Structures are given as C-alpha cells and as structure tokens.
Amino acid sequence: MQHNRWSLSGKKAVVTGGSKGIGEAIVKEFVALGAEVLAIARKQTDLDVLQQESASGVEVLAADVSTAEGRAAVQEKVVQLWGSLDILVNNVGTNIRKPTAEYSAEEYDVVMNTNLRSAFDLNKRLYPLLKKAEQGNIIHVSSVAGLTHVRTGAIYGITKAALNQLTKNLAAEWATDGIRVNAIAPWYISTPLAQSVLKNDVYMNAVISRTPMQQIGKPEDVSAAVAFMCMPAAAYITGQTLAVDGGFTINGFHPF
Predict the structure, then answer these.
(1) Rg (CA), the chain
(2) pLDDT tops 60 at residue 44
(3) Does pTM top 0.85 for this prediction?
(4) Which residues is 88 bridged to in the sheet?
(5) Residues 158-168: pLDDT tens digits?
C-alpha cells in the first residue's frame, strides 16, 4: 500500500476565500497534511493573521476574485510561485438574503459574480496549470442550497446548483487531462457568516429540528472532506457532490 495515499505532501493548492471560516479551515488542513497553499482573500489584514497563525506553508494574495482583475492576479501569482497547480478550491462565496421579488439587478450580479463566475473563470485560467500537474483536483465548495430548498435566497441557490452541474461537466470534459472535479455541499457550519442568522433562537431551533444529527457542523468537518477528495486515496472519485450536512438533505427545509 502506498504510504502517501492519505497525504497531500508536496501538493500545491489555491484556496479562494481562504482567510476565514471554511476557507481558513481548508488552508490549515492542507498545510497540516503537507501541502503548500496560496490563500486568496480581499483583505490583506485578514491574510496577515492567517499567515502568522499558519507558521509556514502559506502564501497569501489580496485579490477580489469576483472581478476579472482579481482572477488575473491569482493566475499570475500561481505561475510566478509554482508554474503548475495540483489543487484549486473555489470556496469564496457571498449571499444576500431576501425574497426573490425584492432583488435588484446589482444584487443579482454581486452574488453571481462572487459565487459562480469566479469559479468558472478561475477553472478556465488555471486549467493549463492543473493539466500540467497530471493529477489535478478542483473542488467547488457548494451548499445544500444547490440540492434542495432552503430559506437562504433564490440567487444563492441558483449559484450553488450551477456549481454542482459545473462539477459534473468538467469532471467528464477534463478526466482525460488527469483532472478530477468534485463538490462539497455543506449545511449550516459554525462560521461568522452563519452565526449572523443562527443567533436568532427561533431560526436556530428550526435548523436543528431538521438536522438528524441535531447539531451545527464545524469548519473542520468540511475541510476534512475537501482534503480527502484531493488525496490519492480518492483517485477514482470525480463528478460527485458530497453533502456535509449532518443528514439535513434527508429532510429538506421548507418555510411552511
């Protein structure tokens, strides 16, 4: 048995939205498993804190990947650092929660550009570098909102469902290039973003009542799943969307 089947030693990885919450957990998980990581986030101050906490193995880049300029900066940095790439984790995401009829065109663009267009374009830009590695991995951090109805806003759900379908398309299209593509779909995870709605006790109780495991997930629950999907041990897994949800998608979450 290969001793490195459960390791990411020597792997080069990019993680967008890498300074907080799930992204931060993924960066730290990768480093602990031997990878070198380029963490992307908008705020340099947040990245500085991440780099200090991670000791070694982490490079950082302040860039807004919802913009073409930000995505070009990521591409340039990866070429400069490594010249090839083993892992791309499209984790960055945002949400604007409101009824569908109340969204403005600008709000639609913000959520679409951040959650979906960033991933689509980074996949395209970094595809040659992933192909060069001959064992590339793309992970889309999706959501159970792309699998079933949740009370989180139609546009967010659209972007996550699209990521799940993009996962299937790219897995088929790029398999012969040695690139595996998978998605991880979390339910509520204990992050600063989630706590903004979970602080409402009524809502929190509703979430718990629909979750068979009766608890909110931890960022490390997601980062472990992401890491596994990128390991040699998962070499025959591609085109899949794995729900990390405490069983939530067994039930769904309806507002009635």
Answers:
(1) 18
(2) yes
(3) yes
(4) 14, 138
(5) 999 999 999 99
Angle at 194 between CA 192 and CA 97, to 5 degrees: 120
Q: Are 86 and 133 in contact (CB under 8 A)?
A: yes
Task: Please report the pLDDT score of residue 256 as a whole number.
Answer: 45
Residue 108 annotated in active site: no
Which of these is catalytic: 156, 188, 203, 236?
Answer: 156
Give 1's pLDDT tier (boundaries 50, 70, 90): very low
